[in-house]
Amino acid sequence: MxxxxxxxxxxxxxxxxxxxxxxxxxxxxVLIEVTASAVNRADVMQRQGFYNxxxxxxxxxxxxxxxxxxxxxxxxxxxxxxxxxxxxxxGGGYAERVAVPWExxxxxxxxxxxxxxxxxxxxxxxxxxxxxxxxxxRRGETLLVHGGASGIGTMAVQLAKAYGSHVVATVGTxxxxxxxxxxxxxxxxxxxxxxxxxxxxxxxxxxxxxAKYLSGNIKAxxxxxxxxxxxxxxxAKAELDLRTLLNKRATVHGSTLRSxxxxxxxxxxxxxxxxxxxxxxxxxxxxVIHARVPMAEAAEAHRMLDSGEHVGKVLLVR
Length: 318
Fold this sequence. Notes:
With 318 residues, the chain is of the alpha/beta class. The chain has two domains: 2-120 and 259-317, Medium-chain alcohol dehydrogenases, catalytic domain (Quinone Oxidoreductase, Chain A, domain 1, Alpha-Beta Complex), CATH 3.90.180; 124-254, 3-Layer(aba) Sandwich (Rossmann fold), CATH 3.40.50.720. The protein contains ten helices and 15 strands. Strands 3, 4, 5, 6, 7, 14 and 15 form a seven-stranded mixed beta sheet that branches. Helix 4 links the parallel strand 9 (166-171) and strand 10. Helix 2 (121-134) crosses helix 3 and helix 2 packs across helix 8 (262-275). The protein is globular and about 55 Å long. It starts with a strand and ends with a strand.
């Protein structure tokens, strides 16, 4: 079997497509012949040496995939050899085959190709678990999405809009802003030109920046607002004036997805299948694909992500 290996920590050039041992599925796993995977910010961080996979998960990058089941463990219910699926992974998606706990395996939604489905699990599970399960976004409320043109951002904009929310997104350029507006964002803020904290009052904020945006996020929250921090691209440490937080009766929720146990990931996946997949099948939400890159050329896909010029997901296809 071949997979993308991180030869050493560094730039995209450290990614090497090479022969590796076959994955060995356990009794609660399925083995998937991978059709496609997708690049996520966590893969970039792992490549740089800042985000190791959880114990027991594959060392190869790749937090999602789509493909066909070729082996089913003895303790796996409801799945069979030949099923076309997509899956949320702890690692190992940049490979020809990957073993994954059955709880994290989902059917391909109607209206989406098997290849396109590779770009759905990570973003759909992240947005559903954080914006809707944790922050409890409701119809008529305002959601502020930072990084609106990212894979997670494009999914958050569409899902929140489909559920009847007012959506505001921050982006880096006017070109990205136009793309996000086409996905349904009611307001777009180019963060290089405007201070979002002076422009928005939000019920829920989905934040990928962390420390750099903390004070601005608290300022932008309405009374009773909920801030969900899912990334640290702007640093990990910041000061917080707790008086503002208390006066607004606001909450700050920190979250990661990769390190959760399989049963928790499974509950999220079931929520996605029940609540997100129907919207995709109906055409209200769609995967946003920036580019398709051969899996053996993962370094080029990482360069695309590093450039910051992408809108949506970069797929790795076989």
